[in-house]
C-alpha cells in the first residue's frame, strides 16, 4: 500500500512556503516540487485530500487544486477518482516527516516561537568570553590520535559524578559522550530497533524522538499522557504485545512541562520488567525544574539491563556546545559504541574539555536557569492571557515551554502565523499519530515585549 501523507506532515515539510509577490498556487506548487526533487516526498506517496490540505495550509481549496493541477500537467502528480493524488515521479532520499524542519536559521524579521532551545547561560558567557576555557589541558591529548569514541575519560567521569549526585548511581564505564542529545537518542534507539519493529511512545512526546524512529523505520504506538504521566492501563496492553522498546520522559516532559508521579514510575518498571521490554528514557530536561530539585527518573525503578538514559548539556549551558550522553549498563554501552563508530568516530576533544570545565559550575547554571525560566513562566502566562484569554494549559513543573490548548485548529493557526512572520510549532509535530490538533507549544525564554509583538501579529491586533 502506498504511504499516505497527513496534512500536518505536509504542512511541516513545506515550511514557510508562501512568498510575497508570488501567487499562492504558484508558491505552493514550487514548494511541493522542492520536496519531490529533494526526495522528501517520494514517488508513490499519496498526498492529503485537497480539502485537508486547504484547511491545514490556511488557503482556499481552489488554491490547492490549481497547484496540484499544475504539477500533474508537468508529470509530477497523478490523480485518480477514489485513490487521491499521488506523487508520480521522484526519488526516496530520506525517511522524514518534517518534525525537525523548523530547526533552521531564522530569517530577519521573523519571531521564532517554534523551539524551546535556550540561548547560552550566563555561566557559558562568562567562561567562554574570558578566552579558550578548558583548553589548558589540551596538551595532554596532543600526543594521541584524538579519537575517543566513548568520550574523554575526564568528561565521562564528570557526567557520572553529576548523575550520582543527582541520585542516579553511575560509573564512567556506563557513560558514552555524543554530539548532542539527538545523536544520543538515535544511537540508543538504533541499538534496540530494527525496521518494522513496534515502539511504544508517549502521546505527545519529543518530536526529535519521533523523527529518529521514523528514520529507523519503526511502527509507532502512542500512549496518552495525562496529568500524572502515562496511562498505565494502556501501557500494560501495549507492552503485552512485546514492542521493541518504550520511549518516555518521566522527569520533566517535553512538550507538556509536567512530571510523572513515582507511582507511575513504579508501574512502568513493573510492566516493562514483566515483559522484558527495554526503556529509553529522555532525561534532557530533568534538571530544569521550577522548584530547584532535580526531577526523579526511572533509575531504581527499571533494571539497568533494560534502562537506557539519554541527556544533554544543551539545556543547562548552551545548545551550541553539542554535548550529549547515554547512560546504560556496560554491555549496552559497548553495543552503542560500535554503532557510533560507523556514524562518526568521536566528539571533538576541545568541546569535551569545555564541557568538563562547565560541569564544575552545574549548580550555578541550574540556579540561573531556574530563576530565568520561573520569571519567564509568569510573564509568558500574563502575555498569552492578555492577548488570548481563552487559551489554557496545565501547571508546569519545569522545562522550557508551555503546552497550550488553543481551542482551535493550531495547525491552521501556525500557517496563518507564517504570513505575519511568526514561526510556531503545532501539536501534531509532537504526536506519533499527528493528533493534538488544538495544541501549541510556546517557548518560555523570550522577552515579554518580543512575545507580545508575536501574539499581537497572530491575533491581528
From TrEMBL:
Family: In the C-terminal section; belongs to the class-I pyridoxal-phosphate-dependent aminotransferase family.
CDD domains: AAT_like
Record keyword Protease present: no
Protein origin, superkingdom: Bacteria
Family annotation (InterPro entries): Aminotransferase_I/II_large, HTH_trans_reg/aminotransferase, PyrdxlP-dep_Trfase, PyrdxlP-dep_Trfase_major, PyrdxlP-dep_Trfase_small, Tscrpt_reg_HTH_GntR, WH-like_DNA-bd_sf, WH_DNA-bd_sf
Any Pfam family matching the protein: Aminotran_1_2
Entry-linked PROSITE patterns: HTH_GNTR
Stretches assigned to the HTH gntR-type domain: 22-90
Keyword Mitochondrion carried by entry: no
GO molecular function: DNA binding; DNA-binding transcription factor activity; pyridoxal phosphate binding; transaminase activity
Keyword list, A-Z: Aminotransferase, DNA-binding, Pyridoxal phosphate, Transcription, Transcription regulation, Transferase
Protein name: PLP-dependent aminotransferase family protein
Amino acid at each position: 500500500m502506498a504511504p499516505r501523507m497527513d496534512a500536518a506532515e505536509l504542512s511541516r515539510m513545506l515550511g514557510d512556503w508562501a512568498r510575497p509577490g508570488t501567487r499562492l498556487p504558484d508558491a505552493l506548487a514550487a514548494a511541493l516540487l522542492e520536496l519531490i526533487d529533494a526526495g522528501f516526498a517520494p514517488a508513490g506517496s499519496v498526498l492529503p485530500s485537497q480539502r485537508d490540505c486547504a484547511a491545514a495550509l490556511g488557503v482556499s481549496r481552489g488554491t490547492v487544486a490549481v497547484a496540484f493541477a499544475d504539477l500533474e500537467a508537468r508529470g509530477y502528480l497523478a490523480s485518480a477518482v477514489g485513490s487521491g493524488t499521488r506523487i508520480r515521479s521522484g526519488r526516496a532520499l530520506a525517511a522524514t516527516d518534517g518534525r525537525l524542519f523548523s530547526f533552521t536559521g531564522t530569517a530577519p524579521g521573523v519571531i521564532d516561537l517554534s523551539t524551546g532551545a535556550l540561548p547560552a547561560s550566563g555561566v557559558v558567557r562568562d567562561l567562554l568570553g574570558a578566552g579558550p576555557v578548558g583548553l589548558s589541558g589540551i596538551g595532554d591529548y596532543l600526543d594521541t590520535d584524538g579519537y575517543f569514541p566513548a568520550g574523554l575519560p575526564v568528561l565521562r567521569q564528570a557526567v557520572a559524578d553529576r548523575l550520582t549526585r543527582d541520585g542516579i548511581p553511575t560509573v564512567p564505564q556506563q557513560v558514552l559522550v555524543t554530539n548532542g542529545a539527538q545523536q544520543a537518542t538515535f544511537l540508543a534507539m538504533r541499538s534496540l530497533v530494527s525496521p518494522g519493529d513496534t515502539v511504544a511512545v508517549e502521546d505527545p512526546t519529543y518530536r526529535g524522538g519521533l523523527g529518529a524512529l521514523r528514520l529507523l523505520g519503526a511502527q509507532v504506538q502512542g500512549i496518552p499522557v495525562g496529568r500524572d504521566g502515562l496511562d498505565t492501563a494502556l501501557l500494560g496492553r501495549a507492552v503485552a504485545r512485546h514492542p521493541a522498546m518504550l520511549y518516555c520522559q518521566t522527569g520533566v516532559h517535553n512538550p507538556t512541562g509536567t512530571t510523572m508521579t513515582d507511582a507511575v514510575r513504579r508501574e512502568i518498571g513493573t510492566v516493562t520488567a514483566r515483559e522484558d521490554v527495554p526503556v529509553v528514557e529522555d532525561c534532557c530536561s530533568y534538571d530544569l525544574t521550577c522548584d530547584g530539585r532535580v526531577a526523579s527518573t526511572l533509575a531504581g525503578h527499571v533494571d539497568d539491563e533494560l534502562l537506557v538514559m539519554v541527556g544533554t548539556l544543551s539545556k543547562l549551558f548552551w545548545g551550541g556546545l553539542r554535548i550529549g550522553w547515554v547512560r546504560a549498563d556496560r554491555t549496552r554501552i559497548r553495543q552503542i559504541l560500535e554503532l557510533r563508530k560507523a556514524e562518526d568516530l568521536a566528539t571533538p576533544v576541545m568541546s569535551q574539555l569545555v564541557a568538563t570545565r562547565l560541569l564544575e559550575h552545574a549548580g550555578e547554571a541550574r540556579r540561573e536557569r531556574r530563576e530565568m525560566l520561573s520569571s519567564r513562566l509568569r510573564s509568558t502566562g500574563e502575555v498569552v492571557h492578555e492577548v488570548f484569554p481563552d487559551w489554557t494549559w496545565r501547571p508546569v513543573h519545569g522545562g522550557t515551554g508551555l503546552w497550550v490548548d488553543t481551542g482551535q485548529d493550531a495547525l491552521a493557526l501556525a500557517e496563518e502565523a507564517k504570513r505575519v512572520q511568526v514561526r510556531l510549532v503545532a501539536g501534531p509535530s509532537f504526536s506519533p499519530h499527528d493528533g493534538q490538533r488544538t495544541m501549541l507549544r510556546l517557548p518560555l525564554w523570550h522577552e515579554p515585549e518580543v512575545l507580545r509583538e508575536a501574539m499581537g501579529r497572530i491575533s491581528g491586533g
